[in-house]
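Reviewer comment 2.1 asked that we show a complete input and output for one of the modelled complexes. We chose the flavin-adenine dinucleotide case, as it is the one discussed in the main text.
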Amino acid sequence: MKKHLVLVGGGHAHMTVMLRLAEIAQKGHHLTLVSTSSHHYYSGMGPGMLSGNYRPQDIRFNVKKMVQDRGANFIEDHVIRIDPSSRILHLASGKNLNYDVASFNTGSGVPLEKIAAKSDDILPVKPIINLIKGRQKLLSLLEKGTPKILVLGGGPAGVEIVANVWAAAQKQKGEADITLVSGSGLLKKHPPKVADLAAYSLKKRNIQILQGAHVTHMENGKANLSNGQTLDYDLAFAALGVTPSPVFRDSGLPVGPDGGLMVNDHLQSVAYPEIFGGGDCICFEKHPLPKVGVYAVRENPILFHNLLSSLEETPLIHFEPQEDYLLILNMGDGTGVFHRRNIIFHGKPAFIIKNWIDQRFMKTFQVSGERNENLEPEQD
Ligand SMILES: Cc1cc2nc3c(=O)[nH]c(=O)nc-3n(C[C@H](O)[C@H](O)[C@H](O)COP(=O)(O)OP(=O)(O)OC[C@H]3O[C@@H](n4cnc5c(N)ncnc54)[C@H](O)[C@@H]3O)c2cc1C
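Response of the prediction step:
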């Protein structure tokens, strides 16, 4: 029987499925991708785009063209609710979509609402498209003087963003007063040597690092900190960690503690076998996985296999997550901080390795001439 496969979100975990859709279409199945944007931006190179090292076109995938060229429909919309008993997706536009098998790769967002209302001068670092707006704002502030830039969050994203804000200012021959508010501390989930190397690299460029304090509220260019301090800012980037997209909790599906779709080791909903998921939006039942693209990328072949098997009613395969992963921080000055197991170092070779890995990923999945596209204003 011919079925309808709906992919929700054209993110990192769906790349292989999107690239190989023609193989599913050949079996006669009907295919649709619903995503909030025609383009998907690769987070691994987002900070490098903020600094001006890469152009936006270098780090994005035209997912609309990718799936249309392979026989699928593309719908630019937002899935706001899932009705799993009648297999219907409700879209923000008011339309409904039926599915036989659905796969979610809806990612995660920065929970900014806890400390600030939406505003033009506070940019969550996800979706990555925000970093384009961030760069434009930063360049315009640098033209006028010495802006005060705040970066919130002492995790890998906060470190990369603050380092690349500095790099953007350097490239413009401008000056910025840059502060990283690191919350409980810098790179707390990584060995102290990783944090020390990153801190050394940032401090020698006069980037201020505040440890042991977090922002409690921000409004109108003023950020209140838990230690009683108030910091002025012209532009702030929020890298406060991420939470999965809320659609699963809103739909009453089984979820993990952070609201991610609870999946078994087939990457399949524990309650609805025709629903699958990958990337930041899932909670892996055996043990929650870190919210890093590495796992999303590794889930790709499993999702491709299991979606096809689910349509064709053949056996599913298991996802076995690797225990640890390679971390390379882009420090914006042509260097990186490298960490894999007990190998930790800082220097140019680390960035060369990161750039090589990232460019290889882009080459594999940028199949629609994205690098030659003109940049059009768009929403994610
Ligand atoms: C600044 C920064 C740098 C990072 N660098 C690295 C790195 O170097 N290496 C690494 O491993 N990880 C890195 N990460 C982590 C990485 O971004 C995430 O783990 C990764 O993006 C997860 O991919 P994803 O496909 O699950 O989600 P996303 O990349 O968020 O993609 C989700 C997609 O779904 C779409 N979507 C969302 N909601 C809906 C909806 N309701 N309906 C339809 N479509 C929807 C979105 O438009 C988007 O296209 C970084 C994160 C940040 C913030």
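The chain is about 30% helix and 25% strand. We note this here for comparison with the apo prediction described in Section 3.2.
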